[in-house]
Amino acid sequence: xxxxxxxxxxxxxxxxxxxxxxxxxxxxxxxxxxxxxxxxxxxxxxxxxxxxxxxxxxxxxxxxxxxxxxxxxxxxxxxxxxxxxxxxxxxxxxxxxxxxxxxxxxxxxxxxxxxxxxxxxxxxxxxxxxxxxxxxxxxxxxxxxxx
Length: 147
Description:
Layout: E1 2-7, E2 12-18, E3 25-32, H1 36-49, E4 52-59, H2 80-95, E5 100-104, H3 108-116, H4 126-146
Parallel strand pairs: 1-4, 4-5
Antiparallel strand pairs: 1-2, 2-3
Helix pairs in contact: 3-4
């Protein structure tokens, strides 16, 4: 069983999956987000092929947490990208019968671009961003188990 991570974008969606022991994240691919039915078909097929037991979606929270225990601040909910991602998550929950969790995706795209610098893959870093989101999630889960 594995975990699927999604780096959602209006045009492209990056995918990554965990290894069988849920310790390491691996980039899986990028899908074009042309329509909801097409995206759903690819996601369902991917979940079946990789025995996915859970989905983690990256959300764009702001840098200032304000010292609160909440994951995001009220100002984040005003952000258009955040609204779009949350709408996607709500839609996905209605369409796929798997647990869906969220993970902070701050700087994942920038870090992914840095990892791919010099490879000629400019703009094709969504799956690497999904991998970074998932690795953060997996590391936090492992830390919580060991604490």
